[in-house]
């Protein structure tokens, strides 16, 4: 039989072993991306209930002190979201929208503005100089799944037959579109993109699960095993953070050392790294929530 002090120690040890519940804010159906924008508030893209081109049920919501309000409505499937200081920029199927402080949207770049017909524009990242954004076009995503909806094995004949048409574009804030990374087999279906330096892009490759750095025209694989990779960011210490939308896993990948699982959500989409607060703000698409995931011990 345990003595009273021993019992207290055992209970304290058990309490320490139980993880602190993650804080979250319900934001609406199918949240995909989040950024800090006008007035320092959080803005979240909601892809909506239907997720069809022309459905008009997508929107951007504003989160102020935990209160959620519609900021810009009438979009179809807004995904990646970035803030330039004057506008929010979001990708929506084959269009990229610019949204002002009143929530009014104008077209930044449409299908005719791209050097190749866009297929499925996804993530958006502001360039370090603030003068342009990078936007991923996932390419032939309708070819990546089997009839059961699962990704084909990476080494399958079906995978080898996926057309290599995905690209990363640079779009200036006045709508000029150019190719930042051209189509190539190493980048079959890119999702997340980040721009930590003027000559560097980080790409989360959705189909193969490779996390890659593109610098001076060359790719370097930083991590593998992240199929369904969505969001990506790098902090000032060189630690990478990656989310996986299928598994709901959120990872930290230190520059030195082993990767660490930070959280498992229902699904983990394109997050915001708040380094001063020690948090990742992660949209959980299936749960309809914005989840606060600590980047360090809880």
Question: Your description of this structure?
Answer:
It is a single chain. The protein has helices at residues 4-17, 157-160; strands at residues 24-26, 31-36, 42-46, 58-64, 67-75, 78-83, 88-92, 95-99, 105-109, 121-126, 132-137, 167-172, 177-181, 190-197, 200-205, 211-215, 218-223, 229-234, 240-244, 249-253, 260-264, 272-274, 279-284, 289-294. With 298 residues, the chain is mostly beta strands. The chain has one domain: TolB, C-terminal domain (Neuraminidase). It has a 4-stranded antiparallel beta sheet, with no helix packed on it. A 4-stranded antiparallel beta sheet has the order 2-3-4-5, with no helix packed on it. Residues 1-5 and 7-16 have low confidence and may be disordered.
Question: Poorly predicted ranges (pLDDT <50, ≥5 residues)?
Answer: 1-5, 7-16
For the biggest β-sheet, the strand order reads: 1-24-23-22
Percent helix: under 10%
Please, what is the average pLDDT? 92
What is the number of independent domains?
A: 1
Name the structural class.
mainly beta
CATH architecture field = 6 Propeller
Q: State the end-to-end CA separation.
A: 32 Å
Radius of gyration: 20 Å
């Amino acid at each position: 039989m345990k003595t009273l002090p021993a019992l207290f120690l055992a209970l304290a040890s058990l309490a320490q072993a139980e993880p602190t519940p993650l804080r979250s804010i319900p934001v609406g159906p199918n949240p995909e991306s989040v950024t800090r924008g006008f007035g320092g508030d959080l803005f979240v893209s909601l892809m909506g209930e239907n997720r069809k081109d022309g459905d008009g049920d997508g929107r951007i919501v504003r989160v102020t002190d935990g209160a959620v309000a519609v900021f810009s409505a009438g979009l179809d499937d807004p995904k990646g979201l970035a803030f330039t200081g004057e506008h929010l920029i979001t990708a929506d199927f084959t269009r990229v929208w610019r949204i002002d402080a009143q929530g009014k949207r104008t077209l930044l770049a449409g299908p005719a503005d791209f050097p190749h017909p866009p297929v499925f524009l996804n993530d958006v990242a502001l360039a370090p100089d603030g003068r342009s954004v990078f936007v991923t076009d996932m390419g032939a995503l309708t070819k990546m799944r089997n009839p059961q909806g699962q990704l084909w094995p990476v080494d399958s004949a079906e995978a080898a037959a996926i057309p290599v048409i995905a690209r990363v574009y640079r779009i200036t804030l006045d709508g000029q579109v150019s190719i930042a990374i051209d189509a190539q087999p190493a980048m079959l279906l890119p999702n997340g993109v980040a721009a930590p330096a003027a000559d560097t892009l980080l790409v989360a490759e959705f189909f193969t699960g490779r996390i890659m750095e593109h610098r001076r025209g060359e790719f370097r694989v930083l991590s593998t095993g992240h199929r369904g990779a969505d969001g990506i960011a790098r902090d000032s210490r060189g630690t990478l953070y990656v989310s996986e939308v299928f598994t709901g896993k959120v990872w930290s990948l230190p520059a030195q050392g082993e990767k660490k699982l930070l959280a498992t959500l229902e699904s983990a989409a394109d997050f915001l790294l708040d380094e001063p607060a020690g948090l990742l703000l992660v949209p959980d698409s299936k749960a309809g929530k914005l989840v606060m995931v600590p980047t360090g011990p809880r």
